Amino acid sequence: xxxxxxxxxxxxxRRIGSVVAVELARRGADVVLGYNxxxxxxxxxxxxxxxLGRKALAIQADVSKGSEVQSLVSRVVGEFGRVDVLVxxxxxxxxxxxxxxxxxxxxxxxxxxxxxxxxxxxAVAPVMKANGGGRIINFADWIAASGRPRYxxxxxxxxxxxxxxxxxxxxxxxxxxxQILVNAIAPGPILAPPDLTEEEDREVRxxxxxxxxxxxxxxxxxxxxxxxxxxxTGECIRVDGGRHVH
Length: 246
Hints:
The chain is α/β, with parallel strands linked by helices. It contains eight helices and seven strands; from the N terminus they run E-H-E-H-E-H-E-H-E-H-H-E-H-H-E.
């Protein structure tokens, strides 16, 4: 698929999502940035996109709720007439010991990390089908994509991201006849958390064969490649600097 003049909907536009949005605009796409709480970042990215000569909308929505997802997609279709690309980046990532993990913690991870991707895909699929096809890109995690947990304290998160891999494969089969290609990206060490200590930073670099953090642009490159491909579907691509082979 040629990205030029296509319409992309990105959920979760904080940090990496904003970079992805701007990169798609650089390649000629109009972009809708769905955000929950990060309004300033979404609006800033929208301004960058408009400065590139493309259309942009920043729309608030809790994508873990079906009614808000339907409203979001309806507004996008109302403004642009189509949705060609869906990038499901909305996610939460928190550590908590298993014994202290609550039902609310579990539901929060499942709702934001997994259910939102299902709801958004279900909402855009008929629109994509009507326009001859499209691309759906979900976001897993390099650990979940590697098939086994590596760190304690992330039970709901790990399970939700493993579910994203399963959802991606299932949707790829379900939507292939409509020419909707569905893939996932599983990021590794892309951006250092703001509260990371120097010692923790060294540990991450040491555990990553390429010896560095990837940077947001590497995710944007992966998104672009999965939009442009016409024959890859049902895949989960790790963007992790070789972390999974360490």
